[in-house]
Queue: 3 jobs
Job 1
Amino acid sequence: MIPCSKVSLDWASLDKDLVELIGWRVLAGDLQDYASFRAVCSHWTASTVSPRQRGVVDPRFHPRQWMMLPEGHGLYPGHPDLRGFVRFFNLSTGAFVRARLPLLDDHVILDSIDGLLLLHRDHDTAIRLLHPFTGDVAEFPPLASLLPQIEFPHSYNEQTKRTGLMSVIASVAVGSTGTITVMLAFDLLHHVAYATTGDQRWTLFAWKIEPLLNPVSFQGKLYAMQMICKEIQKFYIYQINPPNQDATEEQSHLPLPVKIAECPMEKFLYTLNFVECCSQLLLVAYNGSSRSKLIIYRLADLVSGKFEPVTSIGNHTLFVDERALCVSFSPNKGSKNLPSMPPNSIICLNNWPLNPDPEQSSHFEQYDLDTGIWSPASDGNIFQRPPPSPHTLIHHIFTCCHRKYWNKGLMFCVETEPFWLVKEELRYGA
């Protein structure tokens, strides 16, 4: 046997097809790893597909593991002091990167879907879908094209109409020909609309779900709940599919929402939100009116009529509020300079006792699924303005769950402080 020290392999001369195959395997893990793989040598760069110009139209290049991280301290994305840079963090590894996004000079961020950013242009309400790392953009019609299609309540003025239209949860579906369809769920207006690249206006679905509770995007579709509080007292869960853009003109139609589950209200009297974890959609809720315990159900189980709570989510931590995130990074996964997240836990604002004043009733806490015990998630009152210093990583991740930290129109007035995480820029080659 030849000693390992005497074996020399010319990695740069690997067969092109083999390099391409390895590249796709690497991409299945993380886009940043794929970019590093392509940068090893010119042969590997030439043998693999560049993300540029394909970042939006090819779902394989969507940066699913990356989430935009609002800076906090009053520094919303697009704030002049950030000089066009926005920070992102990896939900699995805890890596932090910066990307320069010049579009934020005259756009605001409405949503983040699979790592893509849904932008609203200030002067004409045009909607754009941006890949933050490749710079690729897909264009969509102005949001104002929906105004003639929606019957707003008489009490709505121009500002409340704008707020209703900009409070959205979006989904993105890519057809086999590269056609991109975006659906927008307006939870305050109980409507859903869609548009496809090349359309001149948004189209409102004729149906309406009222109330439209906790819409969430998952695998190109929207899911939402409806609470029926009359005699039957049930939660209905709906799946909302995008129009089939690959169908012929005769076959195309606007699909109706599909009721996929009926859940007795006593199973979870107070719901928090849906959250994607390990390629599954989970539902997090309190177990009863006391709000003393949290329970988790798999959507797939609810669809099949099973009401067996999930007892463990492993090393994952769920951040749940207006929107939800699943984070799983720890020091042994390459984040040695960052604190690990509490495993098998849920971090949320625990509303007890019932009190209309959130500063008196809401506690920023973590719930341990192993023990069923609540404990403070961090020091200080999260509602204090400015929040206590130093700010923890948990505080910063929690800002991802709130739209008010995403754009200047909804920001709290808080003091500006330097961010303590190491800056690193993410760039992609040709």
Job 2
Amino acid sequence: MAVNISSAVKSSNIMTIQLDLEELKLNIDNMFLVINGIIVSFMQVGFACLEAGCVQPKNVTNILMKNILDLFICALSYWLVGYGLAYGGGGCRYYGKEFFAGVGMPSSQNGVWFFQFVFAATAATIISGAVAERCNFVAYILYSVIISGVTYPIASHWTWSPDGWLLKIGYSDFSGAGTVHLLAGSCSFIAALFIGPRNGRFSTIAPNEYNGHSMPLVATGTLLLISGFLSFNGASLGHITKPGDGEIVAISVANTIFSGSGAAVVILIIGKVGLIGESRWPFAMTINAVLNGMVSVCGGVNEYTHFSAVLIGMIGCIIYLVLQWFVPLLKVDDPLETTAVHFGGGLWGVIATPLFVKGGFWNNPDSMPLLKSNLIGAASIILWSVVNSAILFGFLRVFDLLRVSKEKEIIGLDMSLHKEQAYPETNICIENGYKNNKTTVIRHAYDNVAMQHTLQQ
């Protein structure tokens, strides 16, 4: 009898220990996602600094406000609709059917929700760079809601949900080369196409120069994006308590850096030999090439060798250079080169995955079937993004909600929309003898409007 009691006690203790271990693993996985999600959210700071530095001083408040609000507007839309469409279950191959507004969602999934939410916010944020300096604020709110609440979540259901149709046919995309970057890059191109170029951007008589006003802000933003990318790619595994998880995370982080390194080497060589302009050490193009390299590796960052990651970044840099030259030829004004960085890097990242994982296509018999699946996935994501964006931005354009008036654009969005300047002390005011206050800034801006109308006549 004593033996039986002892055995029962031991069995109970073992079960208690197992339950405690499972609870501990769940807690660790949740903290892994939460902590890395917080780090990824700092990419919003990176985008804010990068975009603010790349626009004119008169539009800095506007672009900063958009980047700040992205987190909060996207949080509501992703909570109400997005997460349910992405991971709600229900057995549908094309969209989820549960967890809308968090109804029925287990509390244990809050860590997953938070990490996936920052991905949705990133997809929406990327578009703000393509329509910078002329986008109406109402349009910004509407496209942020739709992209983070519908467009991105449905695509992520296809690729990452266990029920998703692309996942079922073999599509592979570890950290969002197609699901995040290709989608956002496609939406960005359509947005820039529909909104039209900035005033005078492609004028044949006297094209306006639109150069970034603060390289320190651009550099700071880029460094923050690079740090955020490490968690973006490294934590896409989704857990850290299974055997081999630490190794996968470490490989992902290392390959992210190696791919950016490959792109950096190529852009510096091409710049030095004088093939991309007057500067032998181009700054703005270098940072975008590096970002493109880090985007390009997302598809299979957990499986590439270091050499493959470097090579993928090098090829990604070439793709970036081609697109940053080609897009302006189409008279599409993309101030932050989001199409070249995210569409180019995302598409190449989807294609590169079957070509370089598991020894490369020359050693991997599964390479060609995977290439077929990924090409179908890339085409589907592009089609979905283009159709959604055309409807969204077409609607905004038809109802005159997409773009601010020409007068407001010339004045600057800071004063015309927000009545708050980013830089109260402006060279324009000093040079023209105006006192530094809001009234005279607007007065000078209207003088510019009148002058430009006169010149055009």
Job 3
Amino acid sequence: MDQASSLHIAMFPWFAMGHLTPYLHLSNKLAKRGHKISFLIPKKTQTKLEQFNLYPNLITFFPLNVPHVDGLPFGAETTSDVSLALGPLIMTAMDQTQNQVELLLTQLNPNIVFFDFTFWLPKITQRLKIKSFQYFIVNPATLSYTTSPSRMSKGINLTEFDLIKPPKGYPNPNTSSFNLYSHEAKFLALKRNFEFGSGVLFYDRLYNGLRFTDAIGFKGCREIEGPYIDYLEQEFGKPVFLSGPVLPEPPKTVLDEKWGSWLDGFKDGSIVYCALGSEWKLSEYQFHELLLGLELTGFPFLAILKPPIGFDTIEDAFPEGFKERVKEKGIVHSGWIQQQLILEHASVGCFVTHCGAGSLTEGLINSCQIVLMPHLDSDHIINARIMSRDLKVGVEVEKGEEDGLFRKESICEAVKVVMDDENEIGIEVRTNHAKMRKLLLSYDFESSCVDGFCEKLQELVM
């Protein structure tokens, strides 16, 4: 790319590894095309991400000193340094970096700044005559459902009965099939009043950014997200761009021998891999139901879980006799694991996921079938509906309508549906998944998406 057409882009994502990492993945895609990236990052967190910077000649980290906020442990910078309940205080600390950020942007003078939760950023960029771009790692279907002007105009008085159905004009051809469970709608109604840093309500934080940003962006492609993009452009009256699926780069490491040798001991497509993300701690009851459900399937399994609430280790929380019954056929592990390499292994036939955006992308580009067990969070809930009812590329675990609890039988049933070669629903899901995987991995598909995204960014800053 010639110097005249290259952009200088600043990245300022929310201080959580689940946001910092996707922003860096996108930075790599943009730097590959010759664009210069200035990445604003908490000082001590920089070392965690440097290994994933594939273009250090074009991607430069600019460390920020994260102020201490009362109630936070000293030295806490990101949500991975604290419990889930302290996340809003990390947001407060991030808000207090405003002066540092303005000074850096004044010195760097980028063409455009990507941000997600710092709703105050567009006012700074307007003063500096820099374009702002609110880039979300959640899908546009989620934002359309929860934060469109049609929804937000109702204020904080939205009830679970309002939220159980999509907002007016929501682009789902069969809205009745998209309705949320009662416990999910109750959660969204409660979250509407949830303070997320500096006394600002969570959805107000997102909405105020959306109102003042120059343009909006999402990870995704028009083949999947198109109707929701059209809806948001109409609702907000501003351009919405898609960066493409931002597929993870092929790992440069190999699978640890410990896991490779265990996986190699089973036939192709026979193992159930279950991973519920870095933040979801189950209750003891749900922890037991999940493990007993995996055992009930009769398939070998590898489950990556945090110790349940009230326990220091996963072993202390095992159901009675569980360890002896499953022996080497079932492993439960609480540490970090090379998920991308695990999912690529030929013996893995099923992926039980909490429905985080990154995990779903990894599931879709691999041949293992997907079982959806969404964490009670807005984007995970909508992700599960899109995957199970709209795209029909996975099967969702049935939960109680009111209490949101799953049972061991519902875990077992969902796994068996996708693993059964003769089950009618399983056949449909496997067929749709194969088509989606072929699209996402097809030659030049992602590349053309990113090229189109870059062209739109260049038009924005002209």
